[in-house]
C-alpha cells in the first residue's frame, strides 16, 4: 500500500516511561495499572495494541488523549506534553473512539451529534456541514442523519460515534475496539477511511482482540500484559509466535495453530491470512497428493 513509510523524525504521539495508577492513597505503595510504557507513533502508522482483558489497553488509550494523566512519565502529542493542555484542547489533535459508544453520544439527532466536535473547534458552519456529510458518507450512514442516535442498534450507535470522531479530522486517532458490533462492510468502510488518512500522514492506534483485523491493517503490533509492554513488532512476527503470545496470556488464532501443525509438510508457520494459508497449502497438496486414476489415464 502507498502509506508513507514512518519518518523517523517527529512522532505524532510519544509515551515516555509512562506509569499510571487509578488509586494512589497517600502513603500507600501504588498498584500500577500501567508500568513504564514507552512508545512512539509515527506519521502513516497504524499501531495495534493487543492484550488480555484488563491488561491496560483502554487505560493506555485514555492516557494518549489526555482523559487520564500519567502518574509518572510523559505523554507528548506533536512534541507537546499533554499535562499542559486540557482535554478540549487535545481533542482536535487526538480523536478517541470510546470502547462503549454510549459514552460519547448525546445529541438529539445523528447529524447534530457528528457536528458537535467540528462545531466546537470553531469551524465555519459550511465546513462543519461538509465534514458531517463526509463522515456520514464515508461510513454509509447518511440515511440515519435525522434519527436519534440512542434509538439506533449497537452497530448504528458505534458508527455514529465513529463518524463524530472522524469529523474532527484529528491527525491521530485512538480506536478502542472500533469494529465490535459492526458488520463486515461497515468495518471495511472504516478501514478505507483510515487508509486514506494514513496516506496523508495521519496515524492511528487500534485496540483490538481481533487478530485477523490486526493482521490485515496494522503496521506494527504492541503487546500489553499486566500493564507492561512485553513485545512489539510487525504483525507477522508477533501474531504468529505462540510462545510470545502465551507470555501475554494470549492464544494464537486457529489458522496459526494449523499452520504450525502443518509446517513439517512445508506450510510456512507465519501465514497471516486464510488466503495465504490456502495458497501455501495448495502448493503442498499439489506436490504430495497421490495422482488419481483419471489423471494417470
Ligand atoms: N476507572 C477505574 N478505576 C479503577 N480501576 C480501573 C478503572 N478502569 C480500569 N481499571 C482497572 O485497570 C485495569 C486495566 O483496565 P483496562 O480497562 O485498561 O483494561 P483493557 O485491557 O482495556 O481490558 P478490556 O480488554 O476488557 O477492554 C483493570 O484491572 C481494571 O479493573
Ligand atoms: Mg478496554
Word description of this protein:
Helix content is 37%, strand content 19%. With 297 residues, the chain is of the alpha/beta class. The chain has 2 domains: 238 residues, 3-Layer(aba) Sandwich (Rossmann fold), CATH 3.40.50.300; 45 residues, no CATH class. It has a 6-stranded mixed β-sheet with strand order 6-7-8-3-9-10, sandwiched between helices. A 4-stranded antiparallel β-sheet has the order 2-1-4-5, with helices on one face. Strand 9 and strand 10 form a beta hairpin. The chain is globular and about 75 Å long. Bound molecules: adenosine-5'-triphosphate (ATP) and magnesium ion. The site of adenosine-5'-triphosphate has 11 residues, from helix 1. Magnesium ion binds next to helix 1.
CATH fold annotation of the largest domain: Rossmann fold
| CATH evolutionary superfamily of the largest domain | P-loop containing nucleotide triphosphate hydrolases
Bound molecules: adenosine-5'-triphosphate, magnesium ion
Strand order of the largest sheet: 6-7-8-3-9-10
pLDDT averaged over residues? 91
| Number of structural domains | 2
Tally of DSSP β-strands? 10
